[in-house]
């Protein structure tokens, strides 16, 4: 129906119509298609906002039995202890204080002081971190799925205060077959004879003597 010449004529007609309509203001609808975009972009610029997280959304707020202020913990804990327990950090392998500790006693949460592991359940895993095949009581530790670093692990944290402890694996020795891989920085160790003497003291004071 239309050849090239007729199409070119049609285009010329449209251009001429646009010229005259915009010049004399007779047909606003023809010019509106061209000017609308300009008006929109000129009068309604796109507002770009910084893409930030709402305040406080980086930490899970859970109702733990014992809650400490971050300011207090920064004063009381070493930078490494704070990083590991509060920011889910990991100490370097073979660098922790208790990796090779073979003394009899109790390992407590360095933040709140609740007893977590007995030395009887500690074994040498060769991993570079203190390893236990069992906890003092099953209700002192919280287990959470951890998908960081592109793998699935089960994080262990203190049930009472939420401090990050480490992870649990299924390659431990008998009788449980579990391996609690725990950061030394999350623990305070109280030797057996000292444990009896400090039972009446507060958790905070016992931690300070350990640190
Ligand atoms: Zn704790």
UniProtKB/TrEMBL annotation:
It catalyses: [thioredoxin]-disulfide + L-methionine + H2O = L-methionine (R)-S-oxide + [thioredoxin]-dithiol; L-methionyl-[protein] + [thioredoxin]-disulfide + H2O = L-methionyl-(R)-S-oxide-[protein] + [thioredoxin]-dithiol. It comes from the Eukaryota. One of its GO terms (molecular function) is zinc ion binding. One of its GO terms (cellular component) is cytoplasm. PROSITE patterns: MSRB. Binds 1 zinc ion per subunit. Its cofactor is Zn(2+). The keyword Zinc applies. It is an enzyme of class 1 (oxidoreductase). SUPFAM superfamilies: Mss4-like. Residues 70-192 form the MsrB domain. Its EC number is 1.8.4.12. One of its GO terms (biological process) is response to oxidative stress. Residues 1-25 form the signal peptide. Keywords: Metal-binding, Oxidoreductase, Signal, Zinc. Methionine-sulfoxide reductase that specifically reduces methionine (R)-sulfoxide back to methionine. While in many cases methionine oxidation is the result of random oxidation following oxidative stress, methionine oxidation is also a post-translational modification that takes place on specific residues. Belongs to the MsrB Met sulfoxide reductase family. This is Peptide-methionine (R)-S-oxide reductase. The gene is MSRB3.
